[in-house]
Amino acid sequence: MAGLVLALASTTWLKKKYNDVNNAAPNEKILTKPIDDNNDNINSTVPSNNEVVSNDKTTSNQKNNKISNSGNKLKKRTAAVDKRFFEQIRKLIPILIPSVKSKEFALVVSLAAVLILRTYLDIWFSGFNGAVVKSIVSRNKTVFKRKAIYEFAIMMWPLSIVNNALKLTKSSLALAFRYRLSQYAHDTYLKNLNFYRANNVDNRLRNIDQCVTQDIDKFSICLSNLYCGIAKPLVDVCLFSYKLQQAIGKGAPMIMISYFISVTMFLKKISPPFGKLINTEQRLEGDLRYGHSRLIAHSEEIGAYRGIKREKIILDNSLKKVVNHIEKSNVLRFFNGIFDSIFVKYCATMLAFKLLARPLMNPNYATMFMGNAKASTSQLIEDYSRNSGYLVNLSQAIGRLILAGRDLSRFAGYTSRLSDFFDVLNDVDQGIYSRYVKSKTEGARVHIIDTNRLGYKVIRNNELIKFSNVPVVTPAGDVLIESLSFEVRPGVNLLITGPNGCGKSSIFRIINGLWPVFGGTLVVPDPENILYLPQKPYMILGTLRDQLIYPHTRSEALKRQYTDDKLERLLATVGLQHLLIREGGWDVVADWSEILSGGEKQRLAMARLYYHQPKFAILDECTSAVSTDIENHLFYTAKKYGITIISISHRASLLKHHTHLLRFDEQGNYEIELIDEISWKSNESEELVAEKEFPSST
To answer: Which residues lie in Polar residues bias regions (predicted)?
Structure first.
């Protein structure tokens, strides 16, 4: 009774500590799922040449709001064992176990068989223990030798094999789950540019690298442990209840089970939701890891600014949040563990003593297996030892079920993060994006972009790039250009210039499918017929050959008749043949982004362009680190390969390599003009084309 009063008095304290934990770390903002999950993805297939993908379903009201996007109030989700949790599990099971013929299903069945076999061995051991005790009390050497030595010498082999088979099967199941989930995550994340859109267009997910690696690993281990932690106790409850009914009466198992059910309900009321604690802990851990990754990625800039002290403050603050949260969570688990031990272990032990002694103390409860008045002392000791083993196993099984319920709350945290991750990827894959934004007038809101409801057309044509009344809009909803129209055909080289932030690079993001199209008609070639070269070229971690032929493999290059000799001629074209001698040949694996200079990387990227020979190339300041004479050579070579160029640059010297000029101003206005020999010669001074003034719009 005193323990119950103490527990009730502590309920308020536990909940107060839980609120302190929540207030110690910022609340996690989990966005509501966008509406209409069943829309078709317009980019799910690449149409044939000149095939039209039409999505002109927009009503007049939708057209008026298609750029501003209606906002939904931000709703906060909590990780708990509720209806949403079971719905998430229902969606994940087909990924984890795709069919009854899969390896995962075989491991699940094998683990169940091992668990059942382990329970039968526990039953055998309870009887064996009673027989050994009886032989000792009765001083029967023959029985003692037969049981304690010979029989146990035989049974220790299956005992050892089953125990280790349980560990092996459980870890194998966790590994199989991890591999299956990771493969699905890779397939979804790297499909249709989802990796870019999930990081840049949709901002619901944080620390995606953690979701793909650490969260999947912990989810898989926790699920495997839960399977064992629930299946084994359930089997134990059934079998040991049956044995106890025979031994000490039918009512005894039900009394124990009823007690544990009552205790479980009580403990659930005083226990904080550990699922949310785990969810918050994972988010804070991700923030800390992201801070360190930023330090590595921007080490040069931080060193130049002497910002080490400021970065240390940021990292220390992130670390303090993690430590404070874990410390307070550990305090909660400490007090929660005290109540678990008292009610689940010790009070249950007292009840077990009473149930075991009842057939001996009261003849009305005697059974044929315990309490027989004619039984000898040694027999009574054997019965007591055997039945106490049954009861201990039953109590432990029910206790493990209760603790499994606690682990289930923790598992709900991993499930929530993983399910939200896959939900966002599926939304992005269908062209549905949500962004969490703040404004002084509306507060925190979710802006949903559903490309399936926007009126636009995407046409695949390998001989044309064309914008017809296409608005250039950022994922956040900022309108850079209200309506853009231009076209580029083979042989028409376009130079785009304008001030920073006017939308030049945004055009290429729309062409490449990175940003959604908000209206109008967009004509673009198939991906293999267009190549984008940024100012900072991407260098893969691999050989020098890999840099030149990326994203192709060596076998794909050989199929295209590109031997090492032919690749060396490409290096010579851009003046980089010396790299083969300087760096040790084609097959040296290195971090080339650190080894090569800025100019070398840009020239190597141009050699990559000559290797692929697409019909169209988008060059975004891709020669800013090379001299003018080298730049002229690179552009002349591109035209010699028959590549139509769309360039972004402020260099007036590039005018002679283009036929048309597209200029933007800061207000979203633009003009297109023809470049002739007179105009580019008059601009041979290195005056920035972007600084040329526009005529007044009034």
So the answer is: 40-72
